[in-house]
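USER: Please consider what follows.
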Amino acid sequence: MHELPGESRERSLTVVPTPVGPAEFDLAAPTGPTPSAARALLVLGHGAGGSIAAADLIAVAAAARAGGFYVARVRQPYSVAGRRAPAPADQLDLAWTVVVEAIRAGLEDGLPLVVGGRSSGARVACRTAAATGTRGVLALAFPLHPPGHPEKSRASELDIDVPLLVLQGARDPFGTPAEFPPHVTIHEVAAADHRLAGPGFGPALASAATWLAAVTPQ
């Protein structure tokens, strides 16, 4: 196990072997409303070149824990190995599904699952939604297309059979809310770019908390 950089050292990262190298995850218990009776599990992935210490991931994790969720944040094998460039999509998806299964195996049977992530991590969560058996996908700053290339759309990855909520910055160069397909539920983060930083993130976070509760009814 390794210490979680940049955060409290009360928790540490758990290593999970995968066919494409070791991954890691941080698991935090619910903080409310009844910490001893978890509502569900939320598993979050990081962005390409980013980390599980991203501000929006930490904020979503805290909000979900307050709503009764276990929250796990997953480091992909390429990140664990010290590389910034992400692995190919099939390797990301394979590692993710292996880690999600490992996390679930360590918790109580039947605990509902919700997955999500920011940027590249959101893409992985969408592509593997059927494989993980999630109740829904929470996508932060989904990279709908490379900046300046709307013709290279990744909209097909949003065609999933479970509820999907996307928190998207109004000025995101990877795709503004207006560019998304009409069937996708979007919460626009006012004045924000791909980082989702700014005063508009508070209402978006509240929207995410409400959505998480709705997809995991008790």
